[in-house]
Automatic annotation (TrEMBL):
UniProt keywords, alphabetically: Cell wall, Cell wall biogenesis/degradation, Glycosidase, Hydrolase, Secreted, Signal
Signal peptide coordinates: 1-28
SMART domains, per the entry: PbH1 (SM00710)
Low complexity compositional bias, start-end: 37-46
Entry's family note: Belongs to the glycosyl hydrolase 28 family.
The protein's name in its UniProt record: Polygalacturonase
Matching Pfam families: Glyco_hydro_28
InterPro entries: Glyco_hydro_28, PbH1, Pectin_lyas_fold, Pectin_lyase_fold/virulence
Length: 538
């Protein structure tokens, strides 16, 4: 009996010792990560990435499977600064765990991370997952050879960084801060690029000033074409350095004594490039950046759909010829807001083929105001519909809100709303001009682009020449003009002559008394005029 009890006690002791041994093993591994052997390629990347300028800006995406990227661009923060990847990072290791570096070079590849082994699995590292293309890869232009000294030509480095990003969805091209990159005419093009590419602009891009870089003349300097889900954002600057074209265009300016400077101007081509153009693209975002001193238009969208522009600053001198701020053509579903525009032409120009345009919370001036047109030039058809411009401040602009069409054109401008426009020392705040001509003389023609359904609400402030100018066609009178809460008071400016409101063949309604009274507006609809619908004309 005693021997049986001793045997049972010995057995219990052995069981207890076994349990304690297991607990100690788990405690010894607690908080540690197993690190897989680095592949030869990751070792090469690590060595290649060391000591390169701008390497601190590099990031990489997690190696774990990610959801399919959306077709729409990733959302940007409200202030337009910075970017948050739509792909969530891997969970951070525990504070006591040693963290291994994750080298990334300009090609965007990173060493994959492996999960922490569970307790009691032994000392063998887990099997590595099947390699996959990283999502959210970052391509820094410096890693592709860009110098960023403002003198060396960095065009090829930008092209190489874009080509690498183009092959991967949801990737980022980084233009790092505190550097200035000289870039010649360049096209970041699709249509074979994968969607949702972010161009993170935090440095400065400057245009070449030598005539040789522009050849016989180009229509654009920086172009993004045929892309889906492309975004440009950051705190950076695009500087068109267009002074040579402005001076070249001013034939009456003979006060410059710098002979060498003038000789270089004479070599510049007469065709002036737009600074930044998007063509044939979907889901475009431009946020936070600054565009200055373009030779012609600063920012242009042509044949695009789904455009968002916000927290952007555009600036060039008042006397810089034809330097529109934002130019829209054949584009739909466009939103422009919380943006500052100062230039030598229209702050925003809306051309033919545009619809569903929403502009709000914009500061405009100096410049020529916000314009629809000119439309119908050279007897062409032009159609614009569903435009809203609201909550806009205009300061010392040539016009406020304007619709301008050439004689001889066809088509229709319809469903336009100008609301809550504050004007200060604007020459003519409200204009419809169906006799627009930017030359000394234009021939009289019968047909015209029709204008119908234009609302003016709460247009208030001061003018220096004329409060309202409605000059409409005899054959196609303006119809459906409504005015509510219009209060415009004169400010006498030297060399300016104040005029009363002017109307010709303009029909509509005065829903409230106006200041000054606009008695020239014909109330109701034009007699005997068969108004055609947008569908009929466009």
């Amino acid at each position: 009996m005693k021997l049986r009890v001793k045997g049972l006690g010995l057995l219990l002791l052995l069981v207890l010792l076994a349990l304690c041994s297991t607990i100690d093993v788990c405690d010894a591994r607690r908080g540690k990560h197993w690190r897989p052997r680095s592949s030869p390629s990751s070792s090469l990347l690590r060595n290649k990435g060391k000591g390169k300028k701008g390497s601190s800006n590099r990031q990489h995406g997690s190696n774990r499977p990610s959801p399919k990227p959306p077709l729409s661009p990733p959302p940007s923060p409200g202030n337009g600064k910075g970017y948050q990847s739509p792909y969530q990072p891997s969970p951070s290791p525990s504070p006591n765990a040693p963290v291994s570096p994750s080298p990334v070079n300009g090609s965007g590849h990173a060493s994959p991370k492996s999960p922490t082994p569970s307790c009691g699995k032994g000392n063998q590292p887990p099997s590595r997952p099947t390699p996959t293309s990283p999502q959210g890869a970052v391509f820094n232009v410096v890693d592709f050879g860009a110098k960023g000294d403002g003198v060396s030509d960095d065009t090829k480095a930008f092209e190489a960084a874009w080509a690498a990003a183009c092959k991967q969805g949801a990737s980022t091209v980084v233009v790092p801060s505190e550097l200035e990159f000289l870039v010649g005419p360049i096209s970041f093009s699709g249509p074979y690029c994968k969607p949702n590419i972010l161009f993170q602009l935090d440095g400065t891009i400057v245009a070449p000033t030598s005539a040789k870089a522009w050849g016989s003349g180009l229509l654009q300097w920086i172009e993004f074409t045929k892309l889906n889900g492309v975004s440009i954002q950051g705190n950076g600057i695009i500087n068109g350095r267009g002074q040579q074209w402005w001076t070249y265009s001013d034939i009456d300016d003979d006060e410059d004594d710098d002979t060498q400077y003038d000789v270089e101007f004479e070599r510049m081509p007469q065709v002036k490039p737009t600074a930044l153009r998007f063509y044939g693209s979907f889901n475009v975002v431009v946020a936070g950046i600054t565009i200055v001193n373009s030779s012609q238009c600063h920012l242009k969208f042509d044949s695009c759909q789904g455009v968002m522009v916000h927290d952007v600053t555009i600036s060039s001198p008042e006397n810089s010829l034809n330097t529109d701020g934002i130019h829209l053509q054949n584009s739909k579903d466009v939103s422009i807001h919380h943006t500052n525009l100062a230039c030598g032409d229209d702050c925003v120009s809306i051309q033919t083929g545009c619809s569903n345009i929403n502009i709000h919370n914009v500061n405009c001036g100096p410049g020529h105001g916000i314009s629809i047109g000119g439309l119908g030039r050279d007897n062409t058809k032009a159609c614009v519909s569903n435009v809203t411009v609201r909550d806009v401040n205009m300061f010392r602009t040539m016009t406020g809100v304007r619709i301008k069409t050439w004689q001889g054109g066809l088509g229709l401008v319809q469903d336009v709303r100008f609301s809550n426009i504050q004007v200060s020392e604007v020459q003519t705040p409200i204009i419809i001009d169906q006799f627009y001509c930017d030359k000394r003389t234009c021939s009289n023609q019968t047909s015209a682009v029709a204008v119908s359904g234009v609302q003016y609400e709460n247009i208030r402030g001061t003018f220096t020449i004329k409060p309202v100018h409605f000059a409409c066609s005899d054959s196609s009178p303006c119809s459906g003009i409504t005015l509510t809460g219009v209060q415009l008071r004169p400010v006498q400016i030297p060399h300016y002559r104040l005029n009363d409101p002017f109307c010709w063949q303009a029909f509509g309604e005065l829903y409230t008394p106006t200041v000054p009274p606009i008695a020239c507006l014909h109330l109701g609809k034009p007699a005997g005029n068969n108004l055609q619908s947008y569908h009929d004309l466009c």
